[in-house]
Write a structure and sequence with these properties.
heterodimer, A: mainly alpha, 0% strand, B: alpha/beta, 6-stranded mixed beta sheet, 4-stranded antiparallel beta sheet, globular, binds adenosine-5'-diphosphate, binds magnesium ion
């Protein structure tokens, strides 16, 4: 078997890896921010916040990621008269998409905290905000860590769909190589193995982190 | 000695369910009131109405000359700092150490700086016999130890009065005594206490007044000798004969 094509393909995939990781990491961090806000909004007594969060989650869950990507990249710039690079669009899509799922995770974690915890805080004379921050958030955050990491892994895989808006991530790089070289079978086989190794490494890291945090 | 709490005509409904139907009591400074009664009679709801964990449907609560049900949140927090609560299930903060549990509120409410709060917290932990557990996590303690930490946590706010909601009901029988002893010490030191409990021995020894609640009403109240030896109401008699023979 002639593996010489790897000399060209692998460097391209590693270039793509940098973009994939950049978009997935920044996307999940922003998604965490958006998801936390939306998660608290879902639990809020203020109807407007609750409503907005529900609409947001409804829209994201009700449309395919690829459609969201096309929309952000082709429609949003026209609507608002702004310039959005592929990478920025990619980050935006991953943030908004993961945020909707993280909102549900956050809501679940907040629901999972014994109401007695809040009552203990309030009965000691803490403000509701102090109670939330010092008493509710620490255990809630701990309990969402595994799900958050899962969402990160999903987002890493989701970036592959951003090839439709010409983000130069791993999959797009492979497509470029395949269309130039016509080596379809070896290229996509390598691509699949590349993802498999990447995701496996992330899963190992996840297990290590969980073991450390969940002690 | 003056009247600390004036509680007037408290009613509480949960939807269609009328849980409290017109409860009125006065609580004197330094008084120990024990509330007894069958489960479901509204004892917890009544305690929770006092510190506004539940909002009464109607009625009035006055602490000294302040209206506790005033919607002013600052005033409510001041009240809660002065009238603490101990819960049946302890409600300790699981990710914090015992010491952090006790220090947290005094520091956050600016009652104390960190150093003073730590010193005070250690003193209180010694008082409840848990000085050596300061750095332990609550989950490593027995139920009785956790409840004593919860009492220390409430005491750290230097409260004027404490509400206890069945503080020993979740404990193994052999651990009940340690908690009751801490509460007896507090009573002896003059702490104003409202205690919901099924520990009739504690009520007899420590209470200045025993209140029997059933179906959302105060059915009977009086000195422990009166209630335990000469209950007037039939429901009180039935209840007492059931718990005392058990
Ligand atoms: N938050 C709530 N919502 C609905 N019903 C409640 C709530 N809290 C208590 N109740 C009901 O009120 C009644 C009295 O409860 P509770 O005050 O806990 O009684 P006790 O402490 O005397 O056992 C019970 O029927 C209980 O189911
Ligand atoms: Mg109760």
């Amino acid at each position: 078997m002639d593996l010489s094509f790897l000399g060209k393909l692998l460097p391209m995939l590693f270039t793509g890896l940098r973009v994939t990781i950049l978009i997935a990491v920044v996307g999940i961090l922003l998604g965490f921010l958006v998801g936390t806000l939306a998660g608290f909004a879902l639990e809020s007594r203020i109807k407007l916040f609750k409503g907005l969060a529900n609409v947001y989650i409804w829209v994201i869950r009700g449309t395919p990621l690829i459609v969201q990507a096309l929309y952000v990249y082709y429609v949003i710039p026209k609507l608002f008269g702004i310039d959005l690079s592929s990478n920025l669009s990619g980050i935006l899509v991953i943030s908004l998409n993961s945020g909707a799922f993280i909102a549900e995770i956050v809501r679940g974690a907040l629901n999972g905290i014994d109401p007695g915890q809040r009552e203990a805080g309030l009965s000691l004379g803490l403000t509701p905000a102090q109670t939330t921050w010092h008493i509710i958030v620490p255990p809630a955050f701990k309990s969402i860590l595994p799900a958050l990491f899962n969402q990160f892994i999903i987002s890493v895989k989701d970036t592959a769909l951003l090839s439709v808006i010409v983000v130069n991530e791993i999959t797009h790089q492979a497509q470029n190589y395949a269309s130039l070289s016509y080596k379809t079978i070896p290229t996509y086989t390598t691509l699949a193995v590349f993802y498999l190794v990447l995701i496996s490494i992330l899963i190992i890291v996840q297990k290590m982190v969980e073991r450390k945090v969940m002690r | 000695m003056g009247t600390l709490l004036k509680i007037r005509n408290i009613m509480k409904n949960f939807g269609d369910l009328e849980v409290l139907k017109d409860i009125s009591i006065d609580v004197q400074e330094g008084e120990v009131i024990v509330i007894i009664g069958p489960s479901g009679s509204g004892k917890s709801t009544f305690l929770r109405c006092i510190n506004q964990l539940e909002t009464p449907t109607s009625g009035e609560i006055w602490y000294k000359d302040r209206n506790v049900m005033d919607p002013n949140q600052t005033q409510l927090r001041d009240f809660r700092e002065e009238v603490g609560m101990v819960f049946q299930r302890f409600n300790l903060f699981p990710m914090k150490t015992v010491l952090q549990n006790v220090m947290l509120a005094p520091v956050l409410t600016k009652k104390k700086d960190k150093v003073a709060a730590r010193a005070k917290a250690m003193e209180l932990l010694e008082k409840v016999g848990l000085g050596d557990k300061a750095n332990a996590k609550p989950s490593t303690l027995s139920g009785g130890q956790q409840q004593r930490v919860a009492i220390a946590r409430a005491l750290a706010m230097e409260p004027v009065a404490l509400l206890f909601d069945e503080p020993t009901s979740a404990l193994d029988p052999e651990l009940v005594g340690d908690v009751l002893n801490v509460m007896k010490d507090l009573a002896r030191e003059g702490m104003t206490m409202i205690v919901v409990t099924h520990e009739m021995g504690f009520a007899r020894d420590v209470a200045d007044r025993v209140i029997f609640m059933a179906d959302g009403y105060i059915v009977e109240e009086g000195k422990p000798e009166e209630i335990f030896t000469h209950p007037k109401n039939d429901r009180t008699k039935t209840f007492l004969s059931r718990v005392l023979e058990a």
